[in-house]
Amino acid sequence: MCADTPEHHEPQTPRVGPLPEGEWDDALKAVVANTGPLNVFTTIGRHRELFQSWIGFGSMLLYKGTIPARDRELAILRTAHRRSCAYEWTHHRRIGLEAGLTEAEVAATRLGLDDHAWSEDDLAVLTAADELDELGTVTDGTWAALAGRFGENQLIELVILIGHYHMVAFALNALRVQVEDGH
């Protein structure tokens, strides 16, 4: 279930279950060939046209974006925490570690921003995620901190990235997409 701390919540029945393998179209088969049969894909894949558009956009942000992977994963993990999405959290925890985050840093994305000794660069990314969640925008101070290290395209991408993962968390939570066994 999508919830901030999976071990503290009872699993709920998915509202929309994963599409059975025999019903996968070529687009879903291609994604699953690269990722495995993740419930996020096999559930959203029920809406074929939406899935095809969404997967291209999400893949661009995840695999072809201009933001360093470590920063991207900080933003995603903080968003998953803020949106209480265990599915997003579980999968991006692993990706974050692969991107260079430490176990302590991953865990600290669930804490108050003052509860970990973040670098100024990390703090700016995390603060942007918090502000977008709380305010629907980024304050001038946070924008200035981000603009000190990111170019214009990266600034646009960061805001879009955080918004995208909010949307994904909303869908995962509302559809009650389950974390796969073994994750």
From TrEMBL:
SUPFAM superfamilies registered for this protein in UniProt = AhpD-like
List, alphabetically, the Gene3D superfamilies matched. AhpD-like
Q: Read off the InterPro entries from this record.
A: AhpD-like, CMD-like
Give the start-end ranges of region Disordered. Answer: 1-21
Domain Carboxymuconolactone decarboxylase-like: start-end pairs: 49-130
Regions of biased composition (Basic and acidic residues) lie at: 1-12
Spell out where the chain crosses the membrane: none
Protein's recorded name:
Carboxymuconolactone decarboxylase family protein
Q: Which organism is it from?
A: Actinomadura fibrosa
